[in-house]
Amino acid sequence: MSWTNEQIADKVLEYINDFTSVNLGIGLPTMVAERIPEDKGLWVHSENGVLGVKGRPTKDSVSPTLINAGKETVSIQKGASFFDSSLSFGMIRGGHIDYCILGGMEVDSEGSLANWMIPGKKLTGMGGAMDLVHGAKQVYVMMNHFNKDGQSKLVPKCTLPLTGFGVVSLVFTDQGVFRPSGNGFEVLELADKSKTKEELF
Question: What pLDDT, in 10s, does the model give residues 147-201?
């Protein structure tokens, strides 16, 4: 038994305080915006200059001028604001974003994150991740637990190029919720309570 992507997103939301600001990385983390309860009061920030992203638009409301940092069309909530990238990154670098949720290729026991390149593969660039991992108050990683070869993405030491050293607070995967502890990972929740640590790491 493992969690679906929707269940991972819902679990992430359980660990985010109400009425806070959140930045969502591209890929799996964008699903969080679609799952936010109306009464939670979250303000979703996108580094291309939007505060108040609500999720994906309907066919009737889609606008080519409303996009997130991943160039996906979005809808916005009442009271949303727009600004240039210098102000947006000033918000990030100034420590004004409460949470950022990023995808990951590896997270190690020291809380380091590798999520932007695999040597020898096509390079798309780091984007705003380098700023986010050092500017946001809490960094959460949302990813599949195992890679395509069936190996755990939670590792003793990252082997891929780092996005940030010692920056990850919590990791959310289809197998559970984990906290880097310095010499391993503390298991906070398991999707399948019958699994053992040996099967996860």
Answer: 999 999 999 999 999 999 999 999 999 999 999 999 999 999 999 888 887 788 8
The range of the structural domain enclosing residue 13 comes to: 5-200
- List the CATH number of the domain containing 194: 3.40.1080.10
The tally of domains found in the chain comes to: 1
Only one residue has tokens 């001028």, namely: 65
Q: What whole-number distance in Å separates Cα of residue 65 and Cα of residue 62?
A: 9
Categorize the per-residue pLDDT at 123 as very low, low, confident or very high, splitting at 50, 70 and 90: low
pTM for this entry: 0.90
C-alpha to C-alpha distance for 157 and 175, rounded to whole angstroms? 20
Among the options 14, 47, 186, 198, which is catalytic? 47
199 is catalytic: no
